[in-house]
Amino acid sequence: MSATRWSNWSGKQKSDGQVQVLAPVSESELSSVLADPNHSGQRIRAVGASHSHSRIAAPDELMVVTDNWQGVTGLVEPLGLPQPDLSGPARMEPSDVDDVASSRSTSDDLDQSSPIVRVKSGTRIFQMGEPLWHLGFGLMNQGDIDRQSIAGAMSTGTHGSGSTLKNISASVVGARILLADGELAECSRWIEPELFELARHSLGSVGLVVDVDLAVRRRYKLEERLWSEDPNVVMADIENLITSNRHFEFFWMPDRDKCACKSLNELSSNDDSATSVEPIEQHSKLHRSGWSHQIISTLRHDLHTEMEFAVPASSGPACFLELRVMILKRFPDLQWPLEYRTVAEDDLAISTATGRPTVTISVHQDVSIDDQPLFDACEEIFRRHDGRPHWGKVHYHTGADLARLYPRYGRWWQDRDRFDPDGRFLNSYVEDLRP
Ligand SMILES: Cc1cc2nc3c(=O)[nH]c(=O)nc-3n(C[C@H](O)[C@H](O)[C@H](O)COP(=O)(O)OP(=O)(O)OC[C@H]3O[C@@H](n4cnc5c(N)ncnc54)[C@H](O)[C@@H]3O)c2cc1C
Q1: How far is CA 44 from CA 209, 224, 420, in A?
Q2: Is the N end or the C end of the chain the one with fewer CB atoms within 10 Å?
């Protein structure tokens, strides 16, 4: 076992001091983290890729690195699904996949018949693309980047864009979690439903996630278009842009007052007419296309920190306009963009999209600059629009503020405390969000 000082991707967040580090390589090593008397009573924090901008992954005492616990295990049946016909195979084999893919999943909508893959919790999203493709599948959607771990993405409600596409947590249909009492619990909508509800936005504070079962769909190709546009033109047509594209988003650049727009639309899987993953220019737009895992996410090399709020979709245009006016007046030299995306409504207790079609707006700032003046000014506007802060990004909301935004927030905490009465899976950051 070693010790280190944890910091996140941007280097902006650091643990208060040195923390002990474990990097289990097997399920039995993961289990022994809880059984080991040397760690009894210590606060445990699993970390994925440490890409959260908030201190949600900051370990207080013991950090469990999941980089040695990665990989797509394969197709599985839903955990706890009542099986009327017990004579069928317990697990599907890869050879069954074509049949499953054609019969089970033909759209973005997650339904009970979607194929399900089991993924080890430390698996980065980019490590899933090829193995899933070989099985005949693709993820429903992805975020801007694919460097996150699946457990980290699930625990904070990571999302991409698309008014019919939900966040990653909503694609999770089961999980295996080591609880504070050392038990390895399985959960899904059919077994331990309260634990399942907690797990899908675990905030790292429920247990050590071992595996995640994800609903996937038949593999698919996407065409990307990128173009530059005046923000007034974009906002005059925003509803059409959102509804006529599978995925639409834009980055507004304050220093130029211009929008970099991006759309993604599905191609037929047999369509080889434009299969270049490198961009090609056509009519002032850049085009590229390929399989979903090659196209949706991009790399972000420039270190930054970020605030993001989810507002009701109907408030998105007004909220963006207020932010734009404020930033042009008070922060005209801001060199970092605002990003405008959509997320479909879900019914998860503390999802930022629960109960309402959603627009997310994120604000970026350079890591070398004090972000608080900009973020304070933006949060004031987000609050007026009933904004819900992204769980993995910077915000200044208290537990009482969050309880006002989520009717089931108090219940989430009661259930969490039941599974972890001594708070071994809390850290000081999440503890401060208690209602
Ligand atoms: C450049 C960049 C781009 C981003 N783009 C997007 C985007 O497009 N959309 C979006 O929604 N977000 C985005 N984010 C935010 C990011 O997706 C989330 O913060 C996500 O949680 C990061 O995943 P991670 O693996 O780094 O998790 P970490 O930051 O390491 O951890 C997040 C939480 O998950 C918990 N956790 C991790 N593994 C486990 C486990 N095995 N068991 C229990 N708990 C665990 C941690 O304790 C912590 O509470 C971006 C962040 C960056 C830096």
Answers
A1: 12, 41, 11
A2: N
60, 424 Cβ separation under 8 angstroms: no
The answer to whether residues 208 and 177 touch, using CB atoms and an 8 Å cutoff, is: yes
CA 284 to centroid of ligand 1, rounded, Å: 35
Count structural domains, the chain.
Answer: 3
Residue showing tokens 């999943």: 105
251 and 364 co-located in one domain: yes
309 - beta bridge partners?
361, 389
Tell whether 263 and 343 lie within a shared domain. Answer: yes
Residues 208 and 284 in one domain: no
**Structure-block tokens of residue 117:** 């893959």
| Helix axis angle, 316-330 to 372-384, nearest 10° | 150
Tell the residue number behind the tokens 């990665």, with chain if given: 70
What average pLDDT values come out for the chain (435 residues) when binned by 10 residues? 94 96 96 92 97 98 98 95 63 48 42 88 98 97 97 98 98 97 96 97 98 97 95 98 98 96 89 67 82 94 96 98 98 96 98 98 97 98 98 98 98 98 98 98
- ∠ CA(24), CA(30), CA(34), 5° rounding? 125
List, chain by chain if needed, residues with CB within 6 Å of any ligand 1 atom: 9, 45-52, 56-57, 66, 121, 143-145, 148-149, 151-153, 155-156, 158-159, 202-204, 208-209, 300, 390, 392
Domain contains 402: no
Q: What type of residue sits at position 318?
A: A
Query: From ligand 1's centre to the CA of 332, what distance in Å?
Result: 30
Sheet bearing 258-267, strands edge to edge: 280-282, 285-291, 221-229, 258-267, 247-253, 338-343, 358-366, 304-312, 388-389
Q: Which of 68, 44, 143 is nearest to 392 (CA)?
A: 143
Tokens encoding 305? 């920190």
Give the number of other Cβ atoms within 10 Å of residue 357's Cβ.
16
What range defines the domain where residue 49 resides? 2-67
**Element housing 47 (H / E):** strand 44-47
- Altogether, the residues listed in the chain come to a count of 435
Q: How far is the CA of 364 from the centre of ligand 1 (A)?
A: 16
